[in-house]
Amino acid sequence: MLLDLTEHCISSETMVSGGMLTVKRDQVLLPNGNTSQREYVIHPGAVVVVPVLEDGHVVLEKQFRYPLHQVFIELPAGKIDAGEDVLITGQRELLEETGYQAQQWVKLGAIHPCIGYSNEVIHVYLAYGLSKGLQQRDEDEAMEVFMLSMQELLAKVDSGEITDAKTISALFLAERYMKNHPL
Amino acid sequence: MLLDLTEHCISSETMVSGGMLTVKRDQVLLPNGNTSQREYVIHPGAVVVVPVLEDGHVVLEKQFRYPLHQVFIELPAGKIDAGEDVLITGQRELLEETGYQAQQWVKLGAIHPCIGYSNEVIHVYLAYGLSKGLQQRDEDEAMEVFMLSMQELLAKVDSGEITDAKTISALFLAERYMKNHPL
Fold first, then answer.
1. Is ipTM over 0.85?
2. How far is the alpha carbon of B103 from chain A, nearest alpha carbon, in Å?
């Protein structure tokens, strides 16, 4: 038997807006006929990039993430501007954050980081053929850029030094792609 | 030079509470001396389980996720109840959602699904030595339980049928662990 799992919107209310986050609260009809409430973040979507240098090293960032009061090792990533093509977002964020431009871009897929309470989607790109461009980082964006080999990266996933789910997921997709398509 | 990336709280305000989500807005002092604003979700933390049957198949769920209006293939997971040990959360959620109990539990690590706007941490467990227990699903929790081999699962990650980042990240950790520690 194929279950109908769909929940239908009865009404929707905006709880937070105007700042960084938009938060909604919807009354919903469940498949069993009961009603319930769903609260979630409206997100414009984002792009994460796996930038691989000619020697196989990956370009990474260390960034302080306020909600967890912790510095994270992450792949370069950023939000899609209104109306922006996702490839352009990836190219813009890679240049802004790391100073690199890439000749080759391969779309590896898309991931959903937080399906319980956000509609965010993150598009995943592999970028290679890297060269230094003109870096233009936002003056309020503080981060350190550094490089690790894929082996070192995977060791940091195993050891728990890398815990950011978009970074782990994108590395997984990149590692599987590169096994079948050596750069 | 080691950069100080830390952002300091100046003041904090609760924007949403009382329902499913708690959302805060903080005024913060940036490392460069400027001030800015950070909005984020306060989350109790969660546990995701990779349940592996004796024949190597993994127990999965299909669940409708309202923020994306889409059915997702996911590993069993759930929120930590107040004061609950994370292993107990994993055991409770596995039983409630799939009807399985596990003899062996291995902590694989923890991931952060949404470091930009949530303090959520998800603890990752591998569970094996599975047997059928007494399922007690919440009547409002609609889901389908099914099984896939690790090969089938990885093929669905590659093809984009599995996009949930906690599921992809936990599979990655489990696959790497099981390579070195055959069950």
1. yes
2. 24
